[in-house]
Structure formats: C-alpha cells, structure tokens
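Hi F.,

I've been meaning to write this up properly since the lab meeting, where we talked about keeping a consistent format for the predictions we share between groups. The idea is simple: the sequence comes first, exactly as it goes in, then the structure tokens exactly as they come out, then a line or two of notes. No screenshots and no reformatting. I'm using this chain as the first example so we have something concrete to point to.
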Amino acid sequence: MAGALVSASTGAMGSLLGKLGAMLTDEYKMLKNVRGDIKFLKDELEVMNAFLLKMSDVEDADEPTKLRVTAVREMSYKIEDNIDKFMVLVVDRESCSPEARGIRKLIDKCNSLLPDVKTRHKIAKEVKDIKNQLKEVSDRFLRYKTDESSSLPAKDKVDPRLRAVYKDATDLVGINGPREELVKWLNEEEGESLRFVSIVGYGGLGRTTLATQIRANLGIGANFECGAFVSISRKPDMKAILKSILSQICKQDSSCSGLDDVQLIIDKIRESLQDRRYFIIIDDIWELGTWETLKCAFVKNKCGSRIMITTRIVDVAKSCSPSNEDLVYEMKPLSEADSKKLFFKRIFGCEESCPDSLKEASKEILKKCGGLPLAINAISSLLATTRETKEEWDRVRHSIRSSKSKNDIIETMNYILSLSYFDLPHHLRSCILYLALFPEDELIERQRLVRRWISEGFIHGESEQDLMELGEEYFHELVNRSLIQPERIGYDGKVWNCRVHDTILDFLIAKSSEENLCTVLKKQCKPDGIVRRLSLMGTEDEEILEQLDLSHARSIGAFGDIKRLPPLGKSKSLRVLDLQDCSKLKNHHIKDIERLYQLRYLDISFTGIKELPKQIGELQYLETLIAFYDLCELPESTSRLRRLARLFVGPDCKLPDGLGNLVNLQELECIDALQLKHVEELGKLANLRKLKISWRTDGIEGNKLVQSKEKLVSALCKLDECGLCSLSIDYFSGEKDGEGPFLPALGCIHEVCVYGQGIFWIIRWLPSLRNLHKLYFADPKKIEQQDIEMIGLIPNLLELSLRLEIDYTPRLVIRCEGFQQLQSFGVSGARMGDLMFEPGAMPRIKELKLLSFQEKPKSDAGDFDFGIQYLSSLGCLTVSLFCVDSTAAEVKAAEDAFKSMAEANPNRPTLMMTREFPECVLQDEQIDMAGSGTTQEKEESA
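Output, unedited:
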C-alpha cells in the first residue's frame, strides 16, 4: 500500500491495513462470508490505528493507557503474521516454476477445486478467530474504560533547560575555547549590519549553556542597548514567545498589555529595535517555520546588532544563517581531558582524589559518556551518592538507563533526549529505534541500514518510487537532526557511515524495549514478552539462547565472533537475517532457512558460510541476498526468486543458469561477466538499474573470447536501452587487451576501475564516456602528462583516484583546461615534486586526498609548493604521510608545509592530517648510527 504510515508505536498496523485492503480485491478469491469478516477487521483496525497514532504523541501516558496501547499494537503483529501465512499460500500457487504450474494444472483437473476450497476454508476459520480476539481486546478495555485526559500530564513541568541559563561559570568545563571563538565571530565588524550566528549540535552537548555564557561575556548594557533570551518548545506558542521578547527588550511587563495579535506584537518589537543595538538569543529552534515568523520581528538596522540561534537540526542552522558572512558553529563533544575534569570535579573535587580502585571503572564510564556534558553530569551526580566500590560503579555503568533512581539530572537527560525523539515524524521513529539492534561504537553502513529498513517494511513510497533513494532520505534526515553521528562524508554531502552516541543508544534501547520493537539480550537475563527483533553480540547465555521463543521474531542480527545461532527452523515470521562479518559461522548455521517463507533479507557476507541450501528458491519473498566473497556458487533454484531485487556476490561466485528469470532484479554486483555461461541472460534483466561487472580475459582463449565479448556487449547495449542507470566496470588489463575500446560509449557507464599496467588504449576511450563520473587507476606502470590531459577531457568526471608506482611517476601538471567538473581528486604514493596545480586548475574541486604521501623528493629539486592555493573551491584537504625511513624533522617539516598551504588557500579548507607507520620514524640514535656506518665504510674503502 503506497504511503502506508509505519511507526514503532503503531506496530504492524500500517502495512497490515494495506494487506487487508489487497485481500478485498478481486485478486484474492475469498468465500463470501470471509470477505465480510475481513472488511470488519479493516474497519476496526483503522479505528485502532488512529488511537495508536494519537497516543504515540503522548509523552507521559498513564498505566491503563500504556496497557491498552501495548495490547492493540501486539494484536496488529499477530494479525499480520496470520495474513502473511495466507498470502504465502497464494504466492506459492502463482509463482512456482512454469513446469510446476503445468503439474499443478493437471492435479487441479484431477482433483477439481478441492485444494483451493480447503485453503479458503482454512483462511475463513483463521479470520473468524482473529475477529473474536479483536472483539475480546475491545471488550476488555471497555470494561475498564478511563478518561483519556488522564493520559496527559497532570501539570506543566518546568523546562529543565532553564537551569543552563543560570549555570555558574565556575562549574563549567571546556567552554572557554568555543566561547572565545564565537565571541570573536560576533565582534567582527561587517559594516555594522545585522549578523546571525547559529550553534548546532545534538541534545546534551551544552548549546544553551554556551549561548548563555556568550551573552554574559558580551554584556547587555555594556555592548548592547537591549536584548532577549527565549527557549523554544517543540510546539511553540508564538504569541507567548514574542511577548517575552518584547518585555525583555523594553524591560517592563506592561509593554505587552493589550497586545493579543501576533502582528501587533511584531510591530511593537520592530518599533522598539529600530535604532538600537540589540543582542537576541533564540534557543532550541525545532523547525524553520518558527524562525521565519520570529525573523519578521528583527529589524535589519546598521547598529551592529546580533542574533544567535541554537538548534539540533543542521538545515535549520544553515537557514538561520544564510549569507556568506553569517556563521554556523558545530558543537563538539568534550575532549578526554575536559571530560575527566568535569567528571572527577563533581564526585571527588579533582582527579587526584579518585581512589585507584575506581580509575579503571571511571575510564569505562567516561568512554560511555563520549564527551557529552549532559551524560557526564548525570552519571557523576548519581555516582556521587553511591558507595565508592567498583561493583557499584560497574552496576551504574550497565544500568544507567534503567536506573530507578529519582536523580533529577538523570530525569533531565531523559527529557532532553526524548524531546528529539518525539519531534520526529512517525515514519522516522521506527527507523531510529531500529538502531538499538547495533552494538556500541558500531560503524553502521548507510546502504546496509536502508536495505534492512526496506525489508522490515519501514519504507513506503508512492508507486514507482525508488525505495533505496527514499530510505537514504530518511537516513540523512536523522543525520540532519543530530540523532546519528556521520562518518565519512563524501564531497557531495552524502554520509557513507554513521555511529550512535552511547548515551543516545542507551535511550534508544530503553525506548525500543518499551515499544517492543527490539530486544538486546543481556547475560543471564531472559527477555520478557514476545521477541520481535533480536540482536546477538556473542555475550549471550547459551542456555537462554536455546530457550528463546523466536516464532514471532521478524529480524535477527548477529555481530562479531558469534559462534552459534538459535534454531531458525521455527522462526516462520522472520523477515531479516543479517550475519555480516560473523566469520566463525559455518554452513550448518543456516540449515532450514528455506523454510523461512517470509524472509526478505539475507546477508551472509564475510562469514564462514560457503554454501546456500539447494532449496533457496523456496524463499519467494526474498528481496535482498548479500553473499560477498565467501560463497562459491549460487544454487540453481536461485533463478526462481522472482521478487529478488538486490543480489550482491563476489566476482568468483558461479551464477546459475536462468539468470534472466530474475525479472525484478534492480541491483546486481559483482559478476565476472566474460565467465558467465549464458552471458546473454544479462540482457533480459529489463528492470536492472545498477550493475557492477568484472572484466577479466585471463583464461579465455581465441575465438571463445571474441564470442564472449560480443555477447556481453550486446547484453549491455540492451540494458542501456532499458534504462540501466549505473554500470560500474572493474577492468583487469591483460596482454590481449590492447587492440582498442572494448565497449561502445554507453550512457549508463558511470564508474571505471582499471587494474594493471596496460592503460594506454583505454585512456583514449575514456573521453567518449559522457556520463562517466568515477575513475580509478591502480598501479599503472607509467602515467604521462599527456595521459592526465586526456583524462581531463572526460566531460562529466566527478571523482578521480590514482594509485601510483613511485618509480614510474613523472611530474604531473594539472592545467586549467581540463577537469572542469571534477570535485574529488585522490593520489596515493606521490612524492614531493610529482604534482603541480596551475592557476585556474580544477575549478570545482571540493576534496583533495594525498595518501601515502612521501615527503622525500626524488631529487633535491623537489619542494612543497603544489599550487594548492589555486584550488579556489577546495573544502577539504586530507593528507596521510608515509613515515617509513623518514626522520622526525622531515615529517614535522611536511606537516608544517601542508598547514601553510591550507592557510594560503583563500577558501580556508579543512585540513585532516595523519601519519602512516609513525612507529617507523627514524630516531636520532638511528640517524647517528647510519651516519657513522657510512663514515666507516668510506674509511675502509679508502
């Protein structure tokens, strides 16, 4: 059902309503009375869904309401499990192989319609049972009906963020640097025009505290004639906020008397600010509409006025500071030193007073806090009231989120984090809670997460909408809201990986447990209730693992060195089985998975599993199969997986005949195309949108090679005509490959990776590829200036990476004529003097990477002036220095030189510099020994 609303709070209700609607269509031939019962279920569940949605926004529901919500939500899962069983029966009859369908027709002729009638009667009985259970749930709560208003908080609570406004500066740690930098920004004279500064960061980093300290530092009265400080709620009362601003700038409450119209209040504020230098702080803005309204009240005078905004949302911060002269400051966690200082100050007064027996435990606790001031304050306040024993401290570390303590700061931490959660739209709540299944500090790959969301049914788009693209929008929205920490951000702004801050992860685990979305097993602790989604991390008690009832489980994910899995045969509701990187698992661990008829997602990549069951074709709902590098061969029955949309295998994996039967395949990676037995089958995959192939001619001789190439070219041309969006080619050059271009200039070719030394003819072919975006060369024997200039002619090249062989690399000059669209340039293995940028070169370059850079020149003529200052759009310069056989002075000189180059660039790019093999830097005594040895050798030769 397109656009179905999926939320953690509504359970399976969104997708279930879509399925019930489908069962009422003519496609499903139901008995007459069954259709009536299904219509009843659908109508009843729509009302229940509305109830769940309403209650999902109540942050502090009473116990009767919580019980009712849980019962209705769990009922939706149970009904969907049954509906899915019915649908399997229909799919099994319709999607079996043509040969099987022929046999089925013969059986039907012999047995009339008896099997179909039996199936429909079975469904009728099950639907009756569901209907009765639904009535029982409704009747039960009618008997104990309570006023829904009791679900709301009895009284307004004081916003705990208010305390940050009155924080004593002597209690603060790590604030001096950010405060001084922001004060400098605010004090910079820019024609005395109105200037905006935004502070952005996730909840608990101390944005409000920082803003308050800046306000105190600048001083209302000394530097500004008037000012105001207002905090914004998730559902702001704009009239009250504007009145607060007006009363603060006029310094009298009576200024708001008689003003009940928002426009009149705005007019009064503008009149009061017209000729005055003002400083206003708008704290914790949640959405742009609020800012657009408030902005109307602020006069753009020439008095040097300043406005500071704090927010958790990156897009809001950028929109509030839109011009080039306005600034966005990204809050960072406290450093390790400042974290220690704050932690020990609150408990012992200073670090030196901490008992030795607690220092190891304190290190683990601080790691868990991850530099988040709110978490450090909360946990240190709790520890200050406990006994000073390691056991007690360990208990606090492991149970901080579930602590029954009435510690006020703990409640504040919960409140701050829940604000961000309840501000999410419903469809993102399931997505963020799903992250509770991943371990602490886990680097979570974006596409892996999105594929799992899709298989769980969390992503619902309009007809023909690409679910991967929609899921990636969801992912980046969570990054934008500062709920997940981005890792490896590309030049295009896309985030490749993310992590979840430990404190936020604890909140998600607690919240997902409350919603019964995810279960994270703890040692010697069996979960209460039904397990819906299970995360295994290798620390589980084996006996408990054996006792788990996974008959209702929809997802099982395993991590690390896990050696065993719970029995899978009875997990008939399982949608997702993710075993990626569990290297100690073997073939027997996935025995019976062909019985998991609801399975949508299977990942066995980088495990010890080398074979799939021969009956894998029974999994008619399977959408994603990932088996990188370990799998030797796909079973023949794989060609029956009609719903398979994404297939990822290693280039050495043998594919089955009948590849063309996978009519819904959208992504295929990575196949050794010339080794395919029936390469023409590729051309039948009309829905394919992304394809990655490996082109290897080794082992194919003479006429057979010519025929394979012709068939492959024909298949790829057909795919190009059918709308293939992205073709990636890993090309391994060999001795037989110098005769000329191996493919026509297809519009779908987006990426080419060339491995080997014979690159001359392929370079002449590349400029004809109008849509080539990524190009990578690994260890070309020799690359000349004319080669670089030829590559520069590729019209739409966005990324270029060169891994050079040092002995064969001449001086390469990047001229202004080429690379007009290039945004990312990476060079590995270069030395000083290998590279030079002329003025005007690479006008759109955003990212320059110099990896394994050797600071020693080939000759004395080398220097550090690469011309980096001419790269006018450069935003990020990444350098890793290769330290082997270099002296400490040489490495330091190289680092200083790169710092100078970055500072000389007018765009002031971010510089990220690391050392490779720092342990191999030559020490002074090694240099002395090498020098004396040389002298001795000279004396002996003399």
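Notes:
Residues 187 and 694 are 58 Å apart (CA to CA).
The first strand starts at residue 195 and ends at 200.

If this format works for you, I'll send the rest the same way.

G.
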